[in-house]
Structure formats: C-alpha cells, structure tokens
TrEMBL record:
Protein's UniProt keywords contain Protein biosynthesis: no
Family indicated by similarity: Belongs to the type II topoisomerase GyrB family.
Source organism of the structure: Candidatus Nealsonbacteria bacterium RBG_13_42_11
Keyword rRNA processing belongs to the record: no
Gene Ontology biological process terms in this record: DNA topological change
Required co-factors: Mg(2+)
Lineage: Bacteria, Candidatus Nealsoniibacteriota
Membrane-traversing stretches: none
GO molecular function, one term: ATP binding
Protein name, UniProt field: DNA topoisomerase (ATP-hydrolyzing)
E.C. no: 5.6.2.2
Taxonomy, superkingdom: Bacteria
Length: 642
C-alpha cells in the first residue's frame, strides 16, 4: 500500500473533440427536472451553480485551473469562470457539431465517460452544464482557447447562435452565464449565504485553489475569497469553532490504496454529538456511503487496538463500539477515484465497494502513526470513548426501566396526560403546556376527540449538557417520551409516534420562552426525525385582548394591537396576556386551539449544521460564545419582556 501524499499532476492528453462521448439527447430534462437536480425548489435552483462549479473544480483537480470565480448578477443571473483549459470548440466526430455545442446541448456528453482527460471528476454523469442549459431561459458560454475567445448562446436547451470566434485572448478558461427559467423554478432568487457555505467547503476540499464570489446585485458590490492551504485539517478547525476541543492536535491523514486517493481529518470535542461529512471527487455525499463506513471501521479498530496495547482498557473488558467512538467526533473524509458509483442522480451516497477497504487501510495506517506520535491526544480521545461506553451501558439500563414493552404499547401512559379518544396519529394532537394552571385551562378548552394535553411542572432538564442516562431519570422527560410512544436514541421509531401534531404551548414571557427553548433542544437532540417529518409546532397564543363595548378582538403582535386600536373609539379596554392560565377555557380554545382560528409555527431545520452550532452556543457550558452571540444579535430582538 502506498501512503505518500497524493500529488496534483496534469494528465497527459490533448483534450480535443474526440474526447467528448455522447450518450443521449437533452429533451427529458425540462419535462422531469427533479430527476436531474433533485427538486425545483431552492436546493435545485442552487444545484445549477454547483454543476457549473463542479466542471471548474474538475479542471482544478486535474491540475489545470487555479482560480474560480462566481458572480451574482442583476436579474437573477449567475456567471461562473475558471482558468482551466476551456471546453474544446473543434468539430465533434460523432455529432458533426462543435464540441462546445455538443457538451452544452446534449445530455450525457462530456470527457468523463472515457479517455484520459479526467482521472477523477465530480460531475460523473456528464449532465451538469447541459442541465443548466435546459433549465435556463438564457445561457451564454465563453471559451478562451487556442488564442481566441469563442462564444455561443442558448435558450431552454436550444441553440440561439452558432459558435462565434471573437477577439484574441492570452489566457485559457471557460465562462458560463445563465438565467434560471421561472417556468421551472417558482423562486429564482439566489441565496448568498447558501452559496458561500457551499463554496467555502469546496475550497477546503481543493487546497491551493482560490474561489472568489462577487455579489453585484446591490451597490456597493460584496466580494468574498476562499483559499486554504491546510485542506481538510483547516476544514475541521472551522467546523469546531466555538466549542472546546478534547485534544490539541487535529488528526490528518492522506494516502493512496489501489488507485484511490484518501484524505481524512478529525478532532474530538467536549460535546456529545457526532458530526461527519464525506465527499467523493469533491461531491458532498450527504447520506455517506462505503468511504464513510471505511472511516468508521478504521476508527473503532484503531482505538481498540491502541487502548488494549497501552493498557487503557483490560483485555477482558468489552471492546469500544462504533457509537462509543463517534461521541464528540467531528471529522471529514474525502476520496478521489476514477469511476465513482453514486446512488441516485443527486449523488447523495457512494456505492463503490472498493472505497471501503481503501479508506479503512489509509486511515488505519495514518491513525496508528498519529496515536503513537501524540500519546496525550490518544489518551484524551480514548478516555472520552471509555466514558461514552459507560454512559451507553447506564442509558441502556435506564431505557429498559423506562421504556418497558407494555409502556411502548401504550398500556401505561403517564397519569398527568389527558389523552384524546382518537387512536389515529394523523388526526391526533399533543399539546405540551407549562404548569398545572395552564394545563387545567387547556384540558377544559380542548376537543377531547383529537387533542391531548401533557402539562409539565417547571423547567425541564437542559439536555445539551447531559448524557442520556441522566435524561431518562428526569420525570417530566420520561413522561413525554412515554406519551410520544416512539422510544428514544437508537430505539427511536417514528412509525410508533402517537400524534402527528406535537404543539409546544408556553406562556408569552421570559420563562415561557426558556421552557420552549429547552423543549426545542430536547426534540432537536433526541427526536430530530419528528422535526424533519414536520410534526413539531409552536402555538402562538395572543398577546393582547382588546375590548371596546361588546366587541372583543385578539392581537398576536404589537403591530396587530396598534392596528386594532386605531380602528376603535376611545375607552378601549386592553389586557396583556403573559400566561395561558390567565385565559378562561373558552378564550384559550377560540384563540389558540381551535383549528379554524389558531396560529401555529411549524418547526423546521433549514441547515442541520447551523442549528447544531446555535444549540451548542446557546445551551452549552461555554459562556464566552453565548455572550458574543447575544451581543451580536441583541439589536434584532423583538418583544423582549423586562
């Protein structure tokens, strides 16, 4: 096995029209865009940019490009430019058209299906730029090659102009400018934050390549530049910002096995969550795959071997499991191989079986060396894994005590739960309310057929700082878990959820906001599939009751209160609700629980990693990041109770 650092070398080829391989036509893309870009929502819209950038990154990985630029233009247009070789413009032997026109207007046409133009490539399907062409109202390609600039324009996948040979140019490269088709995409406005996050990630993965983003949609324009020499080690350092590392040195290992280049980096933190990212040829594989499995296997085996060899655990003791090893782990693996096999058109999971032994071998060898050279890091990591193992065993005992079969089957629901009569989850609602007073009002106000009430006494445990065995000993959380019916942790089963609307209903004051945050933390950490399925809501009780004579109105915000009061004569009676218990059952039903009138906010996770970071900052044990967050966002706060 060769474990030397992989070098970025230029492949020996001329890269001409004969290197472009044509498989089929372009027509299906406009009919079924979701098959090619995943969706026609924001993800699919931004996927158009990624497809163009992937082609530029392929040039960079082949050693031909060093600079990539993305410009957000007025009118929802995007321009991507690289200083690579430029798409060939000579006549294609199969289509008898220029290679440029063939690549851009033909599905599955590209240099990645054969020949030696690309040893590794991200856009393996060869659909990238052609799909962008098909889903754009207008697109222009500009290629600097052979001393001249060549230009061609397109519309909705069709050629608008022939390839025009223009002025001379000394450099080489390709520019693609496109405008997404509003007939395909309901929203065509690009999100700068999403673009920056993705391209920052790509810059970490392609060290030595400069990626520049310019937003010209507003004056003055904004410019951002990403360039990292440290590669994945720099990326891990970025990912763990704001949390406490468990050990000082970031592991970084790279090597080659059977023609597959493997690069991995990780560091453990004092958090309990595990964060893993995996990439193949710079494509993010959000659902993992064989390379991630190889990394996990290498970690578990290496730590067990080191722990036994150095007497950190006894030979007679159980081995550390994969779950023990992943607690507090933040790591990234990136592999590059010639013919990746992805499951699904959007490349979410790697399927190549040979990637597992390659990743496992390279990580095992480089990690063994890291542990021997850094014994203090090794001890700190393994001590955390051992602590995780003990907590896992304690949690297992606690779960067996709390989540007995009879309880899971709904035979012993908590006494404080006022359940609904319906047994159909799709129509059943569970209201989580604070205190017995609000619980009493809610029980009287509800529709018993489909609305259940679970009152909680006081503030629940902050699960961000607590292991599962301690969480399961907390009475209020235990009641909630039993009421939900799903079990928890690795035993969690969404299909056993007893309610498909779970509503957090707390008072409109500081204590209510705190309880709501604690509950959101619990659901995010231990019941995330409930959020992802769209089953978690926040009730919006009114802030004010406005009465003029016999006319009664409810205001759910300060702005709404002012609008109502402007329409009424003097002598208005105004009541500010701070607690649900202040409402009588009829008012609570009419304003907050009646499906015809109520206002619910559905909880969703736009970015799991960003959400994870915010929970770490706001609910974690470190004071300084929380103080900094509050100072940064203080001016944006509304409806702060003093």
């Amino acid at each position: 096995m060769k474990t030397s650092k992989p070098k970025e070398t230029k492949t020996e080829s001329n890269y001409t029209a004969k290197d472009i391989y044509v498989l089929e036509g372009l027509d299906p893309v406009r009919r079924r865009p979701g098959m090619y870009i995943g969706s026609t929502g924001p993800e699919g819209l931004h996927h158009l940019i990624w497809e163009c950038v992937d082609n530029s990154l392929d040039e960079a990985m082949a050693g031909y490009a060093k600079n990539i630029e993305i410009i957000l233009l007025a009118g929802n247009k995007i321009k991507t430019t690289d200083d690579g070789r430029g798409i060939p413009v000579d006549k294609h032997p199969q289509t008898k058209k220029s290679a440029l026109e063939t690549v851009i207007t033909t599905l599955h046409a590209g240099a990645k299906f054969g020949g030696k133009s690309y040893q590794v490539a991200g856009g393996l399907h060869g659909v990238g730029v052609s799909v962008v062409c098909a889903l754009s109202t207008w697109m222009k390609a500009e290629v600097c090659r052979d001393g001249f600039k060549h230009t061609q324009e397109y519309a909705k996948g069709k050629v608008k102009t022939p390839v025009k040979k223009g002025d001379t140019c000394k450099q080489t490269g390709t520019s693609i400018t496109f405008e997404p088709d509003p007939e395909i995409f309901k929203e065509t406005k690009f999100d700068l934050k999403r673009i920056l996050n993705h391209l920052r990630q790509q810059a970490y993965l392609t060290k030595g390549v400069r990626i520049k983003v310019i937003d010209q949609r507003e004056t003055p324009e904004k410019s951002y530049s990403f360039y990292f020499e440290g590669g994945l080690a720099s990326y891990v350092k970025y990912l763990i910002r704001g949390v406490t590392p468990r050990h000082p040195n970031i592991f970084y290992g790279t090597g080659e096995k059977d023609g597959i280049l493997v690069e991995a980096a990780f560091q453990y933190t004092e958090e309990y969550e595990c964060f893993e990212e995996s990439f193949t040829n710079n494509i993010f594989t959000g659902e993992g795959g064989t390379h991630l499995t190889g990394l996990r296997t290498a970690l578990t085996r290496s730590f067990n071997d080191y722990a036994k060899k150095n007497g950190l655990v006894k030979e007679s003791e159980e081995n550390l499991t994969g779950d023990d090893v992943r607690e507090g782990f933040t790591g990234v693996i990136s592999i590059k191989l010639r013919e990746p096999q992805f499951e699904g058109q959007t490349k979410a999971r790697l399927g190549n079986p040979e990637a597992k032994p390659a990743a496992e071998a390279v990580v095992s060898e480089t990690l063994a060396d890291f542990l021997e050279r850094n014994p203090q890091d090794a001890r700190a990591i393994i001590e955390k894994c051992i602590l995780s193992s003990k907590a896992r065993k304690a949690a297992k005992i606690a779960k067996e005590t709390v989540l007995r079969k009879g309880i899971l089957d709904g035979l012993a629901l908590p006494g404080k739960l006022a359940d609904c009569s319906s047994s159909q989850p799709e129509e059943s609602e569970l209201y989580i309310v604070e205190g017995d007073s609000a619980g009493g009002s809610a029980k009287q106000a509800r529709d018993r057929k489909f609305q259940a009430i679970l009152p909680l006494r006081g503030k629940i445990l902050n699960v961000e700082r607590t292991r599962l065995d301690k969480i399961l000993a907390f009475k209020e959380i235990k009641s909630l878990i039993i009421a939900l019916g799903t079990a928890v942790a690795e035993d969690f089963n969404l299909e056993k959820l007893r309610y498909q609307k779970i509503v957090i209903m707390t008072d409109a004051d500081v204590d209510g906001a705190h309880i709501r945050t604690l509950l959101l933390t619990l659901f995010y950490r231990y019941f995330k599939p409930i959020i992802e399925a769209g089953f978690l809501y926040i009730a919006q009780p009114p802030l004010y009751r406005v009465q003029s004579a016999k006319n009664i109105s409810y205001a759910y915000s300060e702005e709404e209160k002012l609008k109502i009061m402007k329409k009424l004569p003097p002598g208005v009676s105004l009541q500010r609700y701070k607690g649900l218990g202040e409402m009588n059952p009829e008012q609570l039903w009419e304003t907050t629980m009646n499906p015809a009138n109520r206002v619910f906010l559905r909880v969703n996770i736009e970015s799991a990693r960003d959400a994870d970071k915010i929970f770490d900052v706001l609910m974690g044990s470190e004071v300084f990041p929380r103080k900094k967050f509050i100072q940064t966002h203080a001016k944006k706060v509304r409806n702060l109770d003093i």
